[in-house]
Amino acid sequence: MSFEVILTKETTAKVSHIATKIADWLKQASVNQVIYLVPDHIKFSAELEMIQQVGQLLQQPKNSYAVTKLQVYSFKRLAWYFLRDHATLQRPSLSKVGICMILQKILSEYQDELVLFNKESRHKGFIERLSAVMQEFRLGGIEVEDFSQWFEEDSFEEIDQRLKEFGIIYKHYLEYLKQDFVQSEDLLKILAQEISSMDLSNTYVVIDQSYHLNAMELEVIDALVKSCGCVEFYTTATTDAFKQKETLESGLFDSNRQLISRLLNWLMIDESHPVLKELNEENTAYHPDFLELERYWLETSGGLETASNRTSRKIEALQWTAYEDERQEIQETLATIKELVDSGKYRYQDIQILSRNLEEQQTLLQPLLETYQIPYFMDLSDTMEHHPLIQVLDAIFAIQKHFWRYNDIMNLLRSEYCFWPLNRANLENKEHEEVTLRDALIQYRQTLDETETIILAQGYEGKDWISSKTWNYQLETIDEDSLSSKDVLIHEQLTQAQELREQIVSLLEPFYKKLDKVETTKEAITLLYQLLEKIGVSDAFLYWRNHAANIGDIQTARRQDQVWNEFLKLLEEYVYIFGDEPFDWEIFQLLLHTGFEHTHYNMAPSTLDQLTCTGIDSVRYSPKKVTFVIGLSQGVLPRMEEESGLMTDEEREYLLSKLDSGRFLHPTTIQKQSVEPFLFYKVLTSATEKLYLSMHHTDKGSKLKTSSFAERILNNYEIITQDGNQKQQERFEQGDFVTIHELFTTLLQKLRQYKFTKEEDIPSIWIALPHLLRQDKDFQQEYHTLVDSVFHLNIAKQLPKELAAELYGNHLYLSTSQVETFYKDPFSHFLQYGLNLRERREFELTAAGSGEYFHETFDQFIRKVHELKLDIRAIDAITTEKVLKEIFDSMNDDARFQILNATPRMNWTKLLLQDTIRQTLSAALLQLQQLQVTPWKTEVVFGAKSDKKIEIPLNDTQSLFIRGKIDRIDLLETEKGYHLGIVDYKSSAQKFDINRLRYGIQLQLLTYLSVARNIVSDQFKKTVTPYGGLYMHVFQPSFNAKDLKSDADFEETRLKKYKLSGLLTNDLGVLQQVQPDFETGDSIVLPFGIKKDGEYKATSQVYAPDDINLLMDFAFYQLKTAGERILNGENQIAPFDELKEYADSVNGKFSAISMFDATNPENNYQFLTKMPLQENLTWMRNKMDGKEE
Predict the structure, then answer these.
(1) Residues 236-284: pLDDT tens digits?
(2) What is the DSSP string of 346-410?
(3) Shortest CA distance to 998 belongs to which of 822, 819, 816, 1170?
(4) Helix axes 96-109, 126-139, angle to 10 degrees
């Protein structure tokens, strides 16, 4: 029986040494056997390597003699091997989440004893951190008796109370485990007892690459030492590391030295006893430069006594490169790897990439690996926390908790792990199950998209889902002037939405009702599992597994099985632990998340010719011929460790001070920090032929510094250093492209760079390359696509007249608002009214919806006044309020305004709108008291579907039909006929601008005035003279104290706030008839003022009657011109600079389609130039006469 600790450096020929000793042992006697113990995560690769080497030494086939006599195990697999027939293995073991469940139960049952921890159990992350502490105690051999000091004393110190509560939880935790379960730690204890009773003198045991040992593993090693013929423990260290610490600069091997000391103490072997041996046999595979680097690092980091007369020398096997950013660093790293493999000297399996932040870099690294077509193995084990099953379970819980909230319902349905498999019965192809399921999924996606559109538009959530009321769907009107205000139902879509709703509710509502009545967790979990089966979750799992397998994605296929099996195990454990207790949704959900966050997918080891990407912190990696280490900046390596976990360093040290030497805990933050030099030592020896170290200078805008570890090497040796950015540019300039992607990406940049450069000034390579690509059949298509993208002009192609006619029809039916949209930007008009593109409507009160509410109220009020035969100038406040109340009550049942009754918030909004209406209507009545005109009609509709058709012929076969709705027509009857004015209600302040009329972007007022004149003329067969077209701002004005002091009755102040704007006739006689009491000054109702000399004030918006007629004619000319241009196919991107803030093609809903960019030469704004009144009028006359271009 012998035991030795073999100390090795990283460059020592350890594997061949062990293989030789194993072969020698096996040759000594036929009964001899070998157990090679390694950590679980490297068992596969270690087994392949050792069996291969031992097999060669024994000159036997790999799968014969060596396999039967040499067994490679981890501690867990060793337990299974010796205890496979033991009764203990029949007892259940707990998963990590099962342990969390036990701790959750302890916290609930013993909360009265836990002063500090009793309220923490529902905080996210607490249970798993507590689980880590309990595991730390178990692995460190801590006993409940070790907390007796704190059990017996009452202390007011928080640290004592926390340790006491840790002890209480630990005590009950161990009691629970002893009752029914056996954990791997328990198996190792039983294994140690079993080995102690056996004669294994024919067994040679090698323990390798164990950087950490828990108390149970130490017990197993103790038993092996006593029972086996020979036990050797291999670790990375030097004999100098075990000398007096004063002789060392720092503790490079502190962690391993502490591990050996703990092991020898456990075995009761004195460190001075000659069991420590250092293996100095060098691995000849290493380049001499790495032996030099190793010696330097050992000497300067406390691994070896410092040698004298050290001189700097050139290191050729190591290269340092600094890049501009992370993307460039990874791209050039992969390009170099491709070059190495293409040279024929290396295979991908000879190369590895090491990173300290592999998990964060994966999102960038993985797609670039695919782009560079490099086969790879990513040494990252994903957790199951993002699997859609969690989304399904969270949504089921949230729908009940938040009462059928939209987001929760969509989360459930969008998971694609429920409901859709239920619809396969409706499909015809029932012979091929997978095809049927795929068709069901495609149909489900279409139905769900359409259903969501209805839900968003109508705001269906909460009681709308479970009530018996049938769903409705009302399409939005085309624009504010559209006639279409009726409910238009899309029957097929609505029917499918109803069916989906009924299916969901019919399955979930009974579940919720039953769940509320269950008495135990077991009943609740049974109900949950039955629900998942009913809604098709297990069928969805099968489909996604088979789908992944059929497309060759075996890893994803396996993951489906892993998640489902893990979930079933979780349910079993939950029922086992909480079965007879009341069910708590929140605790179940918390533990569910905890379980899946800490459960990793099984990862198959790499056996193919693949590049390996792994983390620097991982002990999984072993030296390769070539290693690339990326991201070596300060703060990454070395990294400053921060205290984490539930147990603090102070508590850990305090508890340790009270424990026997046979107990131990995890290292403190300072102890963890001491491992950093060892990690860099592993990096320096991670390659046998070439080592590439690199960093990037900038990260998210901040400057990064070089790793201090790397600087030590760079300062002491002559290292090949490169500027990564310059290296890449030179490579591209020389046409040295590793992949087609690099070629085309660089060519794209160069084509843009030299787009407007003379040919003689362009480097020859960028002239030759495009020529070669044009001629190459393999790359012609990609090249032309590239060129098209560079020289593409962002110009909308004008439609052929035939296509425009097919799109719009020969008869255009437009509102003035639509025509104004065309003049503001033809492309936006084309998208909105040609292609009928719409944003998905959501259930919200829009500006158009508010406007419609205002208009409807004003219209009904005037109608009521006429019906009741009231004098509108004499109507009092009480009557006004009574009429308004009737109108508001009737509008509550109007489907157009149901949104205002949907929620308490919208009810409040409705009250605000009604108050605005009261204020505006009151002002309007006061205005009418000042005027002699009378409102004749409101909401006067004209257009193709009304009694008054407005047709503008465009040519022999095509016409434009204009539609609209005039808010109010006011008339003043005279002996000669009628004076006519119109009032247009606006939710924002408006002024008439003749320049905007000239450009066609303010046509509505003049168009409506002209149409109103014709309507009144046709009605009364008398002369009708327009006196004005006016805007009234519908709003709630604000007032200041000065206003109130100067106006005792407040009426004049209010009228000024609501003063109408627009344009008026300059016929003073007509205006004095309209407002008879006005003499001089500023009118408080109309937009004009008279000076003392009888002239109009400069602020007056007055026009000669003939000029008003001209403006009305020009408005119709612009309408006709727009119609002609639309049917000619005009659709150019031409927004106005002054309106860009509101332009759909610039900052609005169509910006992603138009891609308008004012920096492009082809994208230009229109500019609204201003001209004096007479110049405008002259220009308009000439334009209509064909004298202006």
Answers:
(1) 999 888 876 554 445 788 889 889 999 998 998 866 567 889 998 988 8
(2) --GGGEEEEETTHHHHHHHHHHHHHHTT--EEE----BSTTSHHHHHHHHHHHHHHTTS-HHHHH
(3) 1170
(4) 100
* Terminal Cα-to-Cα distance of the chain (whole angstroms): 110
Residues 1164, 1158: contact at Cβ < 8 Å?
Answer: yes
List the structure tokens of 789. 């993208």
Would you call 268 exposed, middle or buried from its count of C-beta atoms within 10 A (0-12, 13-18, 19+)? exposed
Single-letter amino acid code for the residue at 927: Q
| Contact in structure between 68 and 79 (CB atoms under 8 Å) | no
Residues near 386 by beta carbon (within 8 Å), at least 6 away in sequence? none
Pairing of strands 276-279, 228-236: unpaired
Helices (H), 826-846: 826-829
| Residue 109 identity | E
Residue 984 one-letter amino acid: D
- For residue 891, give every residue at least 6 positions away whose Cβ sits within 8 Å of its Cβ, in sequence order, or none: 853, 856, 857, 860, 897
**Token digits of residue 950:** 């407005």
> Where is 691: in which H helix or E strand?
strand 687-696
CA-closest candidate to residue 1126, choices 685, 665, 799: 799
CA 131 to chain centre: 31
Q: Can you read off the two tokens belonging to residue 388?
A: 């859609």
Cα–Cα distance measured from residue 1147 to residue 1188, given in angstroms and rounded to the nearest whole number? 33
CA 55 to chain centre: 52
| Number of residues that make up the chain | 1189
Say which residue the tokens 């135990």 belong to.
520
Interhelix angle 847-867/877-891, rounded to 10 degrees, is: 120
Q: How far apart are CA 182 and CA 89, in angstroms?
A: 8
Beta strands at 959-973 and 977-986: parallel, antiparallel or unpaired: antiparallel
235: which 2 tokens? 């670790």
User: How many Å apart are CA 571 and CA 295, to the nearest integer?
Assistant: 55
d(CA 530, CA 828): 53
- Tokens coding 698: 């900038």
What gap in Å lies between CA 965 and CA 323, rounded to an integer? 65
Preceding amide of 1037 cis, omega within 30: no
**8 A C-beta contact, residue 301 and residue 39:** no
Beta bridge partners of 352: 612, 627
pLDDT digits (tens, 9 = 90+) for 643-684: 888 999 999 999 988 888 778 888 888 888 888 999 999 999
Cβ pair 1144, 832 in contact under 8 A: yes
CA angle 86, 91, 93 (to 5 degrees): 115
Q: What is the DSSP string of 1-61?
A: -EEEEEEE-TTB-HHHHHHHHHHHHHHH-TT-EEEEE--GGGHHHHHHHHHHHHHHHHTS-
**3-class secondary-structure state, position 302:** coil
- Candidates 324, 318, 369; CA nearest to 729 is 324
CB atoms within 10 A of CB 746: 19
pLDDT band for position 511 (50/70/90)? very high
Residue 619: CB atoms within 10 Å: 15
Q: How far apart are CA 460 and CA 903, in angstroms?
A: 11
pLDDT tens across 1035-1053, in order? 988 877 666 655 556 778 8
Contact status, residue 551 vs residue 428, Cβ threshold 8 Å: no
Helix (H, G, I), strand (E, B) or coil at 602: coil
* Cβ-based burial of 61 (10 A; exposed 0-12, middle 13-18, buried ≥19): exposed
**382 close to 392: Cβ distance less than 8 angstroms:** no
Interhelix angle 215-227/254-266, rounded to 10 degrees, is: 60
d(CA 105, CA 61): 55
Q: Give residue 535's Cα distance to chain centre.
A: 27
Q: Measure the CA–CA gap between 968 and 921, rounded to whole angstroms.
A: 13
Distance CA 989, CA 981 (A): 19
Alpha-carbon distance of 214 to 394, in angstroms, equals 37
